[in-house]
Amino acid sequence: VQLQASGGGLVKAGDSLRLSCTASGRYDMAWFRQAPGKEREFVAAMRRSGGHTYYADSVTGRFTISRDYAKNTMYLQMNSLKPEDTAVYYCASTGATGAILSAIRTARTYSYWGEGILVTVSS
């Protein structure tokens, strides 16, 4: 499984940004982020079927995860960005093993990771 993320950059608080992640295969996938000096944290996930999505409380209502299977691409639409959203964002895939529901927000569930992309939100 190969993952390639893109779309990061510098924006102002309140702005929007869309991250993309091209990925081979059709598996459970997620976005995580890691702010300076902090541990990597879950942001959003989507089942391979696209039927279920999951979000961290901190982004619910502002971020939307989606997938375009024809383009083998997963997206993270980020609206109403806040300075605390500043982080390196990573896309991840479980590969064929999939994720059990209780662990879908856990980083170790995902075996494949893209390179991180920096999102900086200025106040």
Topology (elements, then pairings):
Layout: E1 3-6, E2 9-12, E3 17-23, E4 29-34, E5 41-46, E6 53-55, E7 63-68, E8 73-78, E9 87-93, E10 112-113, E11 117-122
Parallel strand pairs: 2-11
Antiparallel strand pairs: 1-3, 3-8, 4-5, 4-9, 5-6, 7-8, 9-10, 9-11
Describe what this molecule looks like in 3D.
This protein is globular. It is built from no helices and eleven strands. Strands 2, 4, 5, 6, 9, 10 and 11 form a seven-stranded mixed beta sheet that branches. Strands 1-3-8-7 form a four-stranded antiparallel beta sheet, with no helix packed on it. A hairpin with a 6-residue loop joins strand 5 and strand 6. Helices cover 0% and strands 46% of the residues.
Question: What are the key terms here?
Answer:
globular; mainly beta; 123 residues; 4-stranded antiparallel β-sheet; single chain; 7-stranded mixed β-sheet
Brief summary:
This protein has 123 residues and is an all-beta fold.
Low-confidence regions: none
The number of distinct helices, counting runs of at least 4 residues, comes to: 0
Whole-number radius of gyration? 13 Å
Mean pLDDT, rounded to whole units? 95
The major β-sheet equals: 7 strands, mixed
